[in-house]
Amino acid sequence: xxxxxxxxPQDEFEGFYLLKELExxxxxxxxPKDYFDIVLCDSSGQLxxxxxDASATDKETFFAMGLVKVRGMVHLYREKPQIKITKMRPATxxxxxxxxxxxxxxxxxxxxxxxxxxxTKDGIGDEEIRRIVAYCLEKVEDRLAHYPxxxxxxxxxxxxxxxxxxxxxxxxxFLCRQRPFLNADLLKAGIILHDIAKPDExxxxxxxxxxxxxxxxxxxxxxxxxxxxxxxxxxLGIPTESEKVLGLQHLxxxxxxxxxxxxxxxxxxxxxxxxHFIDAMDAKLQMVEDALATTPDSEEWTPMIRGLENKAIxxxxx
Amino acid sequence: xxxxxxxxPQDEFEGFYLLKELExxxxxxxxPKDYFDIVLCDSSGQLxxxxxDASATDKETFFAMGLVKVRGMVHLYREKPQIKITKMRPATxxxxxxxxxxxxxxxxxxxxxxxxxxxTKDGIGDEEIRRIVAYCLEKVEDRLAHYPxxxxxxxxxxxxxxxxxxxxxxxxxFLCRQRPFLNADLLKAGIILHDIAKPDExxxxxxxxxxxxxxxxxxxxxxxxxxxxxxxxxxLGIPTESEKVLGLQHLxxxxxxxxxxxxxxxxxxxxxxxxHFIDAMDAKLQMVEDALATTPDSEEWTPMIRGLENKAIxxxxx
Amino acid sequence: xxxxxxxxPQDEFEGFYLLKELExxxxxxxxPKDYFDIVLCDSSGQLxxxxxDASATDKETFFAMGLVKVRGMVHLYREKPQIKITKMRPATxxxxxxxxxxxxxxxxxxxxxxxxxxxTKDGIGDEEIRRIVAYCLEKVEDRLAHYPxxxxxxxxxxxxxxxxxxxxxxxxxFLCRQRPFLNADLLKAGIILHDIAKPDExxxxxxxxxxxxxxxxxxxxxxxxxxxxxxxxxxLGIPTESEKVLGLQHLxxxxxxxxxxxxxxxxxxxxxxxxHFIDAMDAKLQMVEDALATTPDSEEWTPMIRGLENKAIxxxxx
Amino acid sequence: xxxxxxxxPQDEFEGFYLLKELExxxxxxxxPKDYFDIVLCDSSGQLxxxxxDASATDKETFFAMGLVKVRGMVHLYREKPQIKITKMRPATxxxxxxxxxxxxxxxxxxxxxxxxxxxTKDGIGDEEIRRIVAYCLEKVEDRLAHYPxxxxxxxxxxxxxxxxxxxxxxxxxFLCRQRPFLNADLLKAGIILHDIAKPDExxxxxxxxxxxxxxxxxxxxxxxxxxxxxxxxxxLGIPTESEKVLGLQHLxxxxxxxxxxxxxxxxxxxxxxxxHFIDAMDAKLQMVEDALATTPDSEEWTPMIRGLENKAIxxxxx
Amino acid sequence: xxxxxxxxPQDEFEGFYLLKELExxxxxxxxPKDYFDIVLCDSSGQLxxxxxDASATDKETFFAMGLVKVRGMVHLYREKPQIKITKMRPATxxxxxxxxxxxxxxxxxxxxxxxxxxxTKDGIGDEEIRRIVAYCLEKVEDRLAHYPxxxxxxxxxxxxxxxxxxxxxxxxxFLCRQRPFLNADLLKAGIILHDIAKPDExxxxxxxxxxxxxxxxxxxxxxxxxxxxxxxxxxLGIPTESEKVLGLQHLxxxxxxxxxxxxxxxxxxxxxxxxHFIDAMDAKLQMVEDALATTPDSEEWTPMIRGLENKAIxxxxx
Amino acid sequence: xxxxxxxxPQDEFEGFYLLKELExxxxxxxxPKDYFDIVLCDSSGQLxxxxxDASATDKETFFAMGLVKVRGMVHLYREKPQIKITKMRPATxxxxxxxxxxxxxxxxxxxxxxxxxxxTKDGIGDEEIRRIVAYCLEKVEDRLAHYPxxxxxxxxxxxxxxxxxxxxxxxxxFLCRQRPFLNADLLKAGIILHDIAKPDExxxxxxxxxxxxxxxxxxxxxxxxxxxxxxxxxxLGIPTESEKVLGLQHLxxxxxxxxxxxxxxxxxxxxxxxxHFIDAMDAKLQMVEDALATTPDSEEWTPMIRGLENKAIxxxxx
Lengths: 318, 318, 318, 318, 318, 318
Known about the structure:
Chains A, B, C, D, E, F: This is HD domain-containing protein. Chains A, B, C, D, E, F: Residues 157-293 form the HD/PDEase domain. Chains A, B, C, D, E, F: InterPro entries: HD/PDEase_dom (IPR003607), HD_domain (IPR006674), NA-bd_OB-fold (IPR012340), YhaM_exoribonuc/phosphodiest (IPR050798). Chains A, B, C, D, E, F: One of its GO terms (biological process) is rRNA 3'-end processing. Chains A, B, C, D, E, F: It comes from Cohnella fermenti. The structure is a homohexamer of 318-residue chains. Chain A is α+β, with helices and mostly antiparallel strands. The first copy, chain A, folds into two domains: 4-101, CATH 2.40.50.140; 110-291, Hypothetical protein af1432 (Orthogonal Bundle), CATH 1.10.3210. The first copy, chain A, is 41% helix and 20% strand. Chain A has helices at 56-61, 110-122, 127-144, 160-178, 184-194, 198-201, 214-218, 220-236, 243-254, 270-294, and strands at 12-26, 34-42, 45-51, 66-77, 80-90, 202-205, 208-212. In chain A, the strands form two sheets. In chain A, strands 1-2-3-5-4 form a five-stranded mixed barrel. In chain A, strand 1 (12-26) and strand 2 form a beta hairpin. In chain A, helix 3 packs across helix 8. The longest helix of chain A has 25 residues, at 270-294. At the B-D interface, strand 4 of B face strand 1 and helix 7 of D.
């Protein structure tokens, strides 16, 4: 079965794919005809597709997020590859294919990721900090296993948020060893809490963000997570003016570093400075790693990456 | 008694003033001699002053924020007027002078200002919004009567914060009449809440800010007030995800308009847009009004005003 | 008759509309066929439309800015609604429809708006200021009744410019009452003059700006209005170096506040600071009000508004 | 006689100099003593100087802009050279020194510069353009001979403005020869008019700007010169909407290129683009030439130059 | 034969043109049909074109950069003119047309340009500077005759780079005469070297840049030319730390003036300041000249020019 | 012996210190008296100091970078502590103090640091990369042991440059383990080379930078190191256009990430992205660590840190 990532113009192919998006449109013909405007994907990537002359039955058979068996061919449209679907039917249980095989996901099983995060939380020595972290984790727990870390920017796949946290925790652990003046409890808590409100900021299913939520647009995950910490303190009977609550709020509020990047205050504790750079480094290197992994090996350059000053990455031949 | 504002180089004067700041320093002489580096003020303004040859007794007699009777003269130092104090004694009850006469304060009695704010709060029709506003007002009530609205930027005097609120409430009322699509309850609440956490952000006495608090630096009044709203909701049993809590948080979070000015989100409700402009207009016009009022009438130009792109204001002769 | 604002995909409709724009295009067919690329509007909004297979007669019958009776249906094209016109004929006198019913216009009759502006001008106490304002008003008088205040930014409709002025005058009157140190004559004059040269800056008909004029591009309404004031002074025998001419020019030149927004000098008189904020507040709140009014009630969010940092406005459900 | 430019710490000297600035100050001694805070200059440069123990007679004898015979020595104060004046008397006619020998001035006699400018104006072929230029020249004519082009930025000396114009005219002439599509009449007029209002923008005497004028601050030389063009047109009966008046205004308004540099519109005619670059190139190269000329030959680097991104210029040893 | 620049909608024409770009695409029809998406050009300009129903033979007959005889008509597509090719055949020797007649090129023969550059190089008095310049010229010599100076920004045509150099050398010569303190050897060398690495930065054929090279993206012509100077010094036995090598590197490294424009250091020698302005002035004026020359005389305005703050140029009717 | 870091106003002390800076100045007295303006330091920090009434002998006895035995007292001058030296003599061999005990230095012996760097270099698998790194290391070898990494920004002490490299190498090693797609040879080489030209950019002795060199100002360490790589390739017979030379140059050229921070190109290989973040993270965390270490424990806040958006760091009391 041809992986989406490997498809080239003029290819013909047949196989199972996911209808990631599907919209019914009409041609300019008189009378106009219905067709499907589709985004077809598998775990290796996605491509736009057209299914012409959709019948009334078709319109009741095919839906977004459904698995299908497709026969089609690839051609160039406005210099980008596009699929023309010539035949399509829904997958059946007999086909033995499963939705989760067709979406991009973190390279580590998300249950394992969540377990590592829980263990790290349990390993926080300070009881009050640990309980605040636990309170916030509970707010998202069911969603932590599958949420992406962003809409498109970085870690935009199933389990991406948890994967981002786990990688940051590794980097944080290294830094605490290299620079013992850093408070490990605070840094762990900061890493777990910094993006903890993302599941409330974005609407996502199967690792795919459809939109920002109203709360996400009007408050944002930064102020939201900061308020969760206060809420936790109130509920757990920890004074909201204590240095711990102050320190945790500061970690969350400052982690985007600059006002124009959404942080109302700038990092002013050692751990807040560390958190910002751990977050930035992990996000940017993941963008690079994912861009290289999803670019065909035959290409010298990845596509441009918005989060890296809109630069592409070059594969040195060394 | 000569008002500070009217003092000109070569003037000699005698009268009561406030020692707004006082530091003991030493001359370069051998052996070094002690002297006082002073900021002398009354309600019309302030000037730097020197008191040379401070004796041991003097050092136990004079303190910052003390009222004193002073004889002195004005001269130019690095092109700015400075006072040389030739004689000084502490004020006594017999002098019949009172601290509050010597500090700048809002032109309306601060008790009246607080009363107007309370009445406005009571006039909020929506009960949940009213109770959240009341909860937050209680947090600062004793300080609302005397806090300034900022360290130096605008309304930097006794009662300045409450005065800023009241003037904004007048402008808000006008706008709600001019544009009935605005929700008056929300706008009133937004005006009262937008700077409500300033007393926690800054340390101030007698309308004079000495410094930002740790909380002020690490969280800032914007995220702080937003957290107070959540705290109020938790304590009052109002769902934290309700549209009202969302709307109030958004008003507070967005009122500085841009990320680089400290707002993690931009105004995205009609009332939030209105609040930002009401706040900006009142602050800027007050800067202009205060600069003109404290500049001698003989001067065509006020000093430069930092909050107005560092421009001075010209008095047109019309 | 279905209002444009209420049209949804799949709707079929019949009624009178305005051909706001009409261009003859050709299909890719061999031989190519002519069709009309149309913008159809009424006072509630506008939508793109196609009229296929335009005959030679059609091409001589239909023109931009003509009223037509249309039968059509709405469909989605590139995720935006578009109209397919199936039948169309020009409106006739017998239809009893009038062009002005089909364009967006200010909510107050523009004759009333002009009258208020004239009365305000007449109420300026200072004779020289009044005569300069009168001179400039005469330059645009016939156009003041119908010009929009901008191409798309704000008040972009029939009478928008006059409506903007009148609303600003109300706000200015409030401020002069709230802060009596402001010179009311200057502020009124500044409000009337600040955008007075817009009719020379833009080419507009029926409240619709087709383009900026050469003068608009090469000089701009700010420097243009400033030059009109000088011209008025020369013609009326008022010294061009007088404080009044200086003050009026300054009001106009500085009202965009910053160099990057087109003002060669920044506000440096009390009235100039006030004018800038009155202008900004009225423009922004009108954008919000108009965006909410033209967005279907069923939508939580308006479209993005360029003049508001490209943010959409949310309708709080309170 | 030692030139200011050549003075080094520890030098003792005697000679004639100009008291460019003089202020009476008082020491911290008890009782305080008067002293003069002075800027001493000759045509090669300037240095700060102190004259201690100024007597009552001294205070009636010495004034700013007076020529004096000085005996003094140079020492370092805060890492910069400063003069200590040990003896000083006013110059007398018998000394045979003249004020103009002691100020910096353009390297060409300013009468010659004005003559060249007048001749260039007379050489403008288009009569209307020529008459407008002549009208504006008349407004400043007596001042053109001595005004500097800026306060400190560039050409800040006697005749600097005229010298800047003449050099730009040479460059303009070269460009018109190199690129004949440029309209020489327009370019000449643009060069003469672009800074023509500077004498109204700044208060200057003997090539030294003491301050910006009120008009300079509130209108600026750009909008001012643009208004002069309109005034000229009105007075000379040339239609203010003509392409010539439009073109000349555009040249003046756009010559600073960007809004943040004070131009309300950007260059949009060929000559306006040329004018901006001629102006920038001449100003910057003159800054470099003057900085090198006033820096002692023993120094590898000039002082930092504000107008060149605050960079110093290095003298390559080639 | 109709020049591309003169083609207007509805025109029918026949003549020889260059297939600057050609891609095979497919229509949405079932089954899809092949067509050519073409950019057709001659020396006066270029237009997009379609050739429908491309046969298998056509696909083997027509290629990018081939000369063809075309019959076609012009129509509007999305408000821009587009060509519909109705008949097409490859040019044959018998047609007597030559590729170089169909591409844009500098107005002076590129052999002459190269000769002038070589002569200028030979005229550099300092032997070491001359040999370094010669070494770098050799690296590009065969390409200097045809490379453009940029992809689209300016001088984007056959011989554009050499033409840019020659024009700059003229301007440099004028400046050295006007300001003799400039070192002519350095300035000549700087002009020849500043863009000398462009042929390694971009892939170009017939004056048309297809893409930036990997070296161009990863190093850029500025650091590249600076390294060539070091390489030259090493190979020629000139000390790499000498003032000459330092001065030449500095000229190249600083010529874009600011970090955000790609220069790692800012101009800090007199010649480096001159070089930056010579480069900027020549590039911008050429943009203006070329935009006016390629815009039909009937148009008042050229298209917007990216390199001129995205402004269009107006043709004053004087 | 009192450490500089622990000195508080009113302290009297005696001990050995380093005269980091010493300048002879003169008082305003008549006749003026000589005094020394001094910066006194030990390994814990530095303070300004005055030594009044310097005799002729004193002026021949004391010099910058000399060790002295000092008796003095601390007082406040302009709100900052300053030392008044009452007695001072040069240290003698008998005192048994050594210069290196009085300067700040990296916490690891610089010989060990250099050894680690050499070993890392030897561990680079690719021979050509290893030889280029070795060539560049040789250029600075004697200076690598003691140079600081910057003038004041970060690692501004003896051995700071080598310490910065070693810490970055640790971080790089961690990242290569965490993300195996990174090329370890390239990353190691990039870390060693990125600041390798700093010793040529700055003039430093004993870890104290006195100034930038001419080469540093005119070329900068980024372009300089890039040229060294080319020089190495030329000398070692490695093709300058090879992917390895390209990759190494790119690492060095892009490591400041943005043009405004001095990089002419932005990171476009995986290792270049990693290098930038490793460099930034190590520099910033070291600033934090050093600021906390040199701030008295009694202080909640460090001084403001220029490299951290001018923010101070707070010591959370957790």
